[in-house]
Every structure is written in C-alpha cells, then in structure tokens.
Amino acid sequence: MHRRGLDKLDLPRLRFAQAEQTYTVRMLLSLALTLGLLIVLVRLPWHVAPPPIGWRLVDEDRRLALIATQLEARAAEDAGVPITRFAIPETEAKNEGTRDSSEFQAQDFPQKPEPPARLEAMEAILEHAEKPPQIIGGLGAYYIHIEYPEEAIRAGIEGQLVLRFVVEKDGTPTHIRVIKPLHPLCDSAAVAALRRTRFIPGMQNGQPVRVHMQLPVRFRLLPNPAESSNPDR
Fold this sequence. Notes:
The chain is an alpha+beta fold. Among the domains are: 60-92 and 103-113, no CATH class; 134-222, 2-Layer Sandwich (TolA/TonB C-terminal domain). The protein is 42% helix and 17% strand. The chain has helices spanning 2-43, 60-78, 116-122, 139-145, 150-154, 184-195, 225-229, and strands spanning 85-86, 107-108, 134-135, 159-167, 173-180, 199-200, 202-204, 207-209, 211-219. It has a three-stranded antiparallel sheet, with helices on one face. A hairpin with a 5-residue loop joins strand 4 and strand 5 (173-180). The protein is elongated, with a radius of gyration of 47 Å. Residues 91-113 are annotated as: Disordered.
C-alpha cells in the first residue's frame, strides 16, 4: 500500500522530467539545423550582376580634335574675340566596308556678351575732364592723413614728391604711382595717406568719369621753438 502511494506521487515528476528532456533535445536540434542552413546559404555561389558603367568608346582622333577645338575657343574668349562657329575636322574610317560618319556640320554658338568688369576695364581714362576731381575737404584733408616718419624727421629728410593716380567714378584713388620720389619712407607715407583720401569724381557731359591726376606732396620740417629762442646753442 505504501509503495503504491509513492509510485503515484513520483509519476508526475517523471513525466515532467521526460518533457523537459524532450524540449531540450528539440531546441538543440533546431539550433543545429539553423546553423547548418546559414552555413549552406553563405557558401552558395550567388551570381551578382555587375553594376552598369556609364562609359562608351570614343574615337581617339575625334576626342583629341574636340579637345583642341574647345581649347582654341576658350583662348579666343579670353582674348575678347567673338566666336560664331567652329567645325570638327574629318577623320578617316578605320574599318573597311563601313560608311564614313566622321563629318560634322558646323555648330553655331551664341556670341558671349562682355562681362561688366571687362567693359569697365576697357573704359578710357581721361587726362582732363570738364570738371576735374576734387579732394573732399580740400588739400588740407589729405595732409591730415600724412604721418611724417620718425626716422625721416631724425634724418632731416624734407622735400617734394609727385604722385600720379586715377580717380574712379566713386571717388576712390587707384593705380597710385610715385613718378617723382623723395625717400622711400616719405613715399610710403604719401601713398598711404592718399589711399585714405576720397575725391569728388570728375564729370564729363554730366556723367562721372575716370580721370588721371597728379598730386605734388611737400614734406617740410618746422624749426624747433626751443632752438629758435636759443640761437647760441
């Protein structure tokens, strides 16, 4: 009696243990099958189509002719020569029995308009205008900008130099040159002061124009008041 009671109690445990063992075996088999399938898929020789390449064969002579023609056209544009048309030269067919298709008709190109910068550069610079340029604030406004170099003062350098420049339509001085130098220190000071000076532009027929100008600049050392009061020293 006691033995039968123990068997009835152990029966559910045995069934549970068997079910757990069966589940474990099935899981291991599933993992093994999955790994085997992955290995097979990886090792299979898959055929992949090559990507399309956007190149095509071009006749070497024709390609060189095109490049040479384009370079000539670009050089002509830089020189300011209007381009109306150009033709690609004929090339001989390389294969016998084929029709020569290397003749091209001339291509018409629209005339490239001149850019504003080039037109402005081509404008004439007048030597004299009906109303010449004037320094805003007078000549004294220019001399205010001059900084007499200390080294030139200690060396006792004084005298006159002459600047030549162009007054643009907006009143700014450009193309500044020293046509009669005095000393490098004084020349640099005069040019630097002129760059900070603004002008009323010259007028011709009621329109602002570019005008050449020359400006004499005088560097003069004033006597020291202490030295003038003591002439013996």
